[in-house]
Design goal:
10 helices, 2 domains, Alpha-Beta Plaits, Aminopeptidase, Peptidase_M20A, four-stranded antiparallel β-sheet, 22% strand, alpha+beta
Amino acid sequence: MPDLKSLLDNEFDLFEPIHLAQNLVRISSVSRTRGESDLARYIANYLIDHQIRVEWQEVEEGRANIIAEIDGGRGEGPCLLLNGHLDTVPVGTGWTMPPLGGQVVDNYLYGRGSCDMKGSLAAMMYTAKIVSLFTPNLFGKLKLVFVVDEEQDNLGIKKWIEIWQKNWEPIDFAVVGEPTGLNISLGHRGVAAFRVTIKGKSCHAGIAHRGINAIYIASEILQVIKEKQNEFDQYGDDDIGKPALSVGKIQGGTSPNVVPDLCFFEVDVRTVPGLSLDEIKSLICDSVKKVFEIHNLPSTFEIEQSIPHLPPVKIPRDVPGIDILSRSISDIPGEMPIFAPFPASCEAAFLDQVDIPTVIIGPGRIEEAHTANEFVSITQIVAASRIYSLLALRFLGGE
């Protein structure tokens, strides 16, 4: 059995994944724009240039996933999946660095999508190149699945799963490259949202005492919901975090001189396995009813789910692949395997739903994602490239 780490060390070029990431950032790929296809073509061309088999998987007209596969030369064996998304959120305002410049300043690569998640895509692309050099030593298959529409409705990953299930082949371990600071996340909390509509009674603001101000009622309800957060600590999970409620939108009223008879707000909900979505909905309902009871008013409100529930996902630490991943991190100077919750949600949930054991690990911090002057450490891009490469070589090499 060859020393796979030594083979990697002899071939590894730390500048190539950095240059790849810079080039990816320079291609605008805002979700549901032609830029998604522009980025997909660049990635496809890079992989094809290295004799890697590529499939252009159409999701909608003008939008496509990129699927790449590398077969080991030693026959059947495990399948490792590396997954990322092509699209980004819009550039937005407030930038002092060129959002599509791909500039590196003081060890950081700046630009929209640098952190979420073109640094990771570059590392996975380079990993595919590395694996392609050593196929005679490997079993099984490395599969790359880069999808569109992650920032919107997840149409890309849904299309890939639909086709994969029709032509089913086992996938033994998967990595989603969302930014975790190279910590290992065994899953994430679920996410949903509820829209709560409060009904009051309108009248002229000059006789406001004769009306029922829906905005005032809503504001009291929001305070009760905020206080309810303290009750969630008991449901916390060391690997995926605590359940949470966060009000992100409120709207009500028609004019300053009219007591508003309607007000609605939307509550972002983060769920964990020990606390169901129905239980959280009941908690929100109880908060609303409590305020109406305090004011001796009839409970005139509606609550409806405004975002479908993406359920929580968590895999056990003894899943095959995690030990290899941990050892691969340990072999990177300055890195050590740390398990930490991923605070957002991602497409690992979709992979989990079809029984593909999935972890989340990638360069960058979620705190930098979607921000003006988004950035990622180029040191972490290089480290991610080595980690993914070692994982793939070991997982497919029989270590």
